[in-house]
Amino acid sequence: MTYDGLIVGLGNPGPKYARTRHNFGFLLADRLVARWAAEPGASCEARGVRAKAEVWDVSENYGARRWLVVKPQTFMNLSGQSVGEICRKNGIAPERVLVLHDELDLPLGTARFKFSGGLAGHNGLKSVAAHLGTRDFARLRLGIGRPEGPEAMADYVLKGFLPAEWEQVGQVLDAAVTAVLQYCGEGLDAATARLHAR
Fold first, then answer.
1. pTM assigned to the model
2. Is 22 among the catalytic positions?
3. 186 in helix, strand or coil?
4. Residues with Cβ < 8 Å from 163, sequence gap 6 or more?
5. N or C terminus of the chain with fewer C-beta within 10 Å?
């Protein structure tokens, strides 16, 4: 079976981490799966755990496009193991990979596409790049901002969003779902232009 690409939500498995800032990618992947499952002309079938990742097989536009959506279950720092293996097994080139992840360098409420370039110290991205053998893959960066005080970054990203932040989280997830659907249908350049005009 041929796929148009791979969409990877980054996060840590288990209920302890489910609603943390570092799991923004998982949160978006879950929203996408729910959207495709309800979309006319689309189907979204869970494939269980393969290559140490939760995997969904998505068909869009009455079968015109097919995608794999994955949530690696290896913990963040080893996410690339699943990504590399799934790409190799399915013949998906790195430039057809879209990684959804939290981003310290953007404020909460902001989502931005990026292709290639630096990894901003993100261990999940570092692992993906190492296992793909390149940084030339697309990312959708979901802003979480930086801590206001002296809190360590590792502690900050592993904390849950504050109650007052959840409305903003929901809004950016909705915008990001639309952006990913545009990416799938129209390509990265068109989706980037629309998202960044928000």
1. 0.95
2. yes
3. helix
4. none
5. N
